[in-house]
Amino acid sequence: MHGMNLSIVSCCLLLLGWKQCAGATNGDDVSHNSTSNGNDQGFGDCECVPYFKCNGPTRNTGCDDFLSVCCESKTQFQDEIIPKKRDRGCGRRNPNGLGFSSNGDADHAQFGEFPWMMALLGRETTEGNLNESWSYQCGASLIHRQVVLTAAHCISGKYMMYKIRAGEWDTRTENEFYPRQERTVKTAILHPEYSSRSLTHDFALLILESPVKIQNNIDVVCLPAKEEIIDNITCYATGWGRDNFGKEGDYDVLLKKLEAPILDGTTCESCLRHSRLGSRFKLHESFLCTGGQPDIDICKADGGSPLVCPIKGKLNKYYQAGIISWALNCVGVPGVYANVIKALDWIDKTMTDNGFETSSYKY
């Protein structure tokens, strides 16, 4: 988490490390098949191409990125491939991915599985730093074609400029079947009650210079209804979190996901009182918690990234319950999120005040 100085907790980034996935098979988004073939007998010369351009067996050899395969020239598609259209509407998760499904690693999201997931990039604007490259700051989520929701602590200061990247999945390549998009952040609006000391009301809305184009791998997330009861359910947190606790960790190259069971506030507060926060710690109402189990590693996530939960009675539709805010360490201690329900009135008012409709995230 960049640009932060917390006196109460040390912030860290959540989610599990990952193992290289063992190949790929196509899903229902592309009208051809490309399957991994471990037998190289009779296999001619091949070249690395994006997976969706191959209509035959692929050699089990290393290409530069996860989305490329070694394919014989005679089985490569030469014509333009037209993607199938999918249903629109907020919160639509694609559990089998778009175009193909990766095998074997449950810790990683499929390509296009969470189309609202955004990467927030930043760079300094002070003299001498104007030519610095963009660096990854936080995760974020799309709630309107021109508005992104993230954590206030991700916006580190007035000498920074920001942009978002939509449709990102494998950070090593741009060979995704659906292109990613980038937009400059025009205005960052922090919650008026945000505290950089305690991280209460850790909400920020980012207004983009221009709207993103909605496509199969880029779409908005729903926000919960005020009366939604977020308890005793399992949700998902996503991000490109570090593989080790603290500054020495490296970011992952593939988007990760973590199943995160919701904890009620009383249980979370009790767990945290047994940590270094001490017996007098009180969980603020603007937070909610997940995890706390000894077998779930929740210390390495991206601040600002969404926590999404299933909408009852609606298959593969999700609302954003939280924003990753802070955590203490890796094992057995709950992760803490900004509770989106507590910010709904502020989000709606801010959207309206800036000329944006709120129906984009209603369900």
From TrEMBL:
<dbReference type="InterPro" id="IPR018114">
    <property type="entry name" value="TRYPSIN_HIS"/>
</dbReference>
<dbReference type="InterPro" id="IPR051487">
    <property type="entry name" value="Ser/Thr_Proteases_Immune/Dev"/>
</dbReference>
<feature type="signal peptide">
    <location>
        <begin position="1"/>
        <end position="23"/>
    </location>
</feature>
<dbReference type="InterPro" id="IPR001314">
    <property type="entry name" value="Peptidase_S1A"/>
</dbReference>
<keyword id="KW-0325">Glycoprotein</keyword>
<comment type="similarity">
    <text>Belongs to the peptidase S1 family. CLIP subfamily.</text>
</comment>
<keyword id="KW-1015">Disulfide bond</keyword>
<protein>
    <recommendedName>
        <fullName>Peptidase S1 domain-containing protein</fullName>
    </recommendedName>
</protein>
<dbReference type="GO" id="GO:0004252">
    <property type="term" value="F:serine-type endopeptidase activity"/>
</dbReference>
<dbReference type="GO" id="GO:0006508">
    <property type="term" value="P:proteolysis"/>
</dbReference>
<dbReference type="InterPro" id="IPR009003">
    <property type="entry name" value="Peptidase_S1_PA"/>
</dbReference>
<dbReference type="Pfam" id="PF00089">
    <property type="entry name" value="Trypsin"/>
</dbReference>
<keyword id="KW-0732">Signal</keyword>
<dbReference type="InterPro" id="IPR043504">
    <property type="entry name" value="Peptidase_S1_PA_chymotrypsin"/>
</dbReference>
<feature type="domain" description="Peptidase S1">
    <location>
        <begin position="101"/>
        <end position="352"/>
    </location>
</feature>
<dbReference type="InterPro" id="IPR001254">
    <property type="entry name" value="Trypsin_dom"/>
</dbReference>
